[in-house]
């Protein structure tokens, strides 16, 4: 990886860390541990959507296993699923080290970036869809309900709902760092999106549409709405993490790939 790509990868990682920690630090209900080597977020629920660990070194080496074992054991003892995020090459020793600790590879995403000034969001939007920033605690709950619908009837779905039903979630109203957006058709909330305003970038997350409403352009409309909102508030870099299936959508909008992001999990260790 070139020096420029490493800097961009660190930018994407820093934005993700801001996303993972901003509410946790504000709430007083969650636990955040930060060291020179890693960051660990315990959201207080058995949810690997929000229980995250991020490794900060260039590579995870065999000599680092003790630190990672500590984090894995922390969540295992609580019987909490967790996700460890790595922005390093899967062919490096990072992959083998994490596998040796019993962590399974759960998913691979593509980190991407674009310059906000160069983007031209599509302003077309389905007439029936109304997009807006959340404005009440009830709308935050509805936001969480759309995200939870991605997990079906699983325990993870219930915990995602609980996360956005916590009293601390109300702190996200008019939040300066984490802004939530919803799309409504009449009175039904059908889509979501999130912007994270980190010091050096704006991140796009949580673009989701209820399954029964897909294929109607709601996800694309939300994405372009978020781009417009980001440009309204900030210049500079915009970052996101795309699934391999969705990378071409973002490329057509002006985003360039930076690196792979591998997510490891401990869920199987709790069974």
Keyword list:
Aminopeptidase; GNAT_dom; Acyl_CoA_acyltransferase; alpha+beta; globular; 271 residues
Care to describe what's here?
GO terms for molecular function: acyltransferase activity, transferring groups other than amino-acyl groups. It comes from Paenibacillus tyrfis. This protein is an alpha+beta fold and 271 residues long. It folds into two domains: 3-111 and 260-270, Aminopeptidase (3-Layer(aba) Sandwich), CATH 3.40.630; 116-257, 3-Layer(aba) Sandwich (Aminopeptidase). 34% of the residues lie in helices and 29% in strands. An eleven-stranded mixed β-sheet has the order 1-2-3-4-11-5-10-9-8-7-6, sandwiched between helices. Helix 4 packs antiparallel against helix 5. The chain is globular, with a radius of gyration of 18 Å. It starts with a helix and ends in a 6-residue tail after the last strand. The mean pLDDT is 92.
């Amino acid at each position: 990886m070139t020096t420029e790509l490493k800097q961009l990868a660190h930018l994407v990682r820093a934005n993700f860390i801001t996303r993972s920690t901003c509410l946790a630090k504000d709430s007083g209900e969650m636990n955040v541990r930060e060291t020179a080597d890693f960051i660990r977020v315990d959201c207080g629920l058995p949810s690997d959507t929000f229980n995250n660990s991020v490794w900060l070194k260039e590579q995870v080496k065999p000599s680092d296993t003790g630190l990672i074992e500590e984090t894995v054991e922390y969540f295992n003892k609580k019987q909490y699923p967790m996700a460890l995020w790595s922005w390093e090459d899967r062919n490096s020793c990072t992959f083998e080290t994490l596998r040796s600790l019993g962590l399974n590879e759960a998913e691979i995403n593509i980190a991407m970036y674009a310059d906000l000034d160069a983007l031209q969001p599509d302003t077309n939007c389905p007439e029936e869809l109304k997009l807006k920033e959340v404005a009440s605690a009830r709308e935050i709950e509805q936001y969480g309900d759309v995200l939870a619908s991605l997990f079906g009837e699983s325990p993870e779905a219930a915990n995602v709902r609980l996360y956005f039903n916590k009293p601390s979630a109300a702190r996200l109203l008019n939040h300066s760092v984490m802004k939530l957006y919803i799309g409504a058709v009449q009175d039904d909330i059908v889509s979501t999106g999130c912007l994270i305003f980190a010091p050096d970038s704006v991140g796009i997350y949580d673009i989701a549409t209820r399954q029964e409403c897909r294929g109607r352009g709601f996800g694309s409309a939300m994405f372009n709405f978020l781009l417009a909102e980001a440009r309204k508030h900030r210049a500079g870099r915009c970052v996101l993490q795309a699934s391999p299936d969705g990378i071409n959508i973002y490329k057509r909008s002006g985003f360039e790939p930076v690196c792979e992001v591998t997510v490891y999990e401990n869920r199987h260790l709790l069974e």
